């Protein structure tokens, strides 16, 4: 499977029930996936970043619905968002 497709598949898994502990990175195969939703709580829309802590590859998906149970950072808290999400390589 294409790496990009695998990242999107991972996004689907996260949107459903947020498990990442056993998910493997499409790039390096390590089970070191982390993710963060960022958006606005009143509209529950925003973007989702998924990355691998081990190799720092990942994906950024905009225009997603933020699940009720997800931990979501506010878009305007730029410093908090910057601290939380590493500068990963997309694709
Ligand atoms: Zn990786």
Protein architecture, described:
A hairpin with a 4-residue loop joins strand 2 and strand 3. It is built from two helices and five strands, in the order αββββαβ. It has a five-stranded mixed sheet. The protein has one domain (3-90). The protein is an alpha/beta fold and 91 residues long. It is globular. The protein binds zinc ion (ZN). Zinc ion binds at residues 25, 27-28, 30, 52, 54-55, 57.
Helices and strands, with pairings:
Layout: H1 3-17, E1 33-40, E2 45-52, E3 57-65, E4 72-74, H2 78-84, E5 89-90
Parallel strand pairs: 1-4, 3-5
Antiparallel strand pairs: 1-2, 2-3
The structure holds zinc ion.
Shape: globular
Strand content: 25-35%
Q: Which regions have little confidence, pLDDT < 50, spanning 5+ residues?
A: none
Q: What is the N-to-C succession of helices and strands? A: HEEEEHE
Q: How are the strands of the biggest sheet laid out side by side?
A: 4-1-2-3-5
Helix/strand class: alpha/beta
Bound compounds, each kind once, are: zinc ion
- Average pLDDT taken over every residue: 92
Helix content: 10-25%
Q: Give the oligomeric state of the chains in this entry, treating copies of one chain as homo and distinct chains as hetero.
A: single chain
């Amino acid at each position: 499977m294409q790496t990009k497709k695998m990242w999107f598949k991972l996004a689907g898994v996260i949107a459903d029930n947020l498990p990442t502990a056993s998910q493997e990175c499409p790039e390096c195969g390590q089970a070191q996936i982390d993710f963060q939703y960022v958006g606005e709580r009143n509209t529950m829309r925003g973007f989702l970043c998924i990355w691998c802590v081990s190799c720092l590859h990942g994906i950024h998906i905009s225009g997603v619905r933020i699940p009720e149970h997800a931990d979501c950072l506010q878009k305007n808290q730029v410093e908090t968002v910057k601290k939380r999400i590493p500068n990963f390589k997309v694709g």
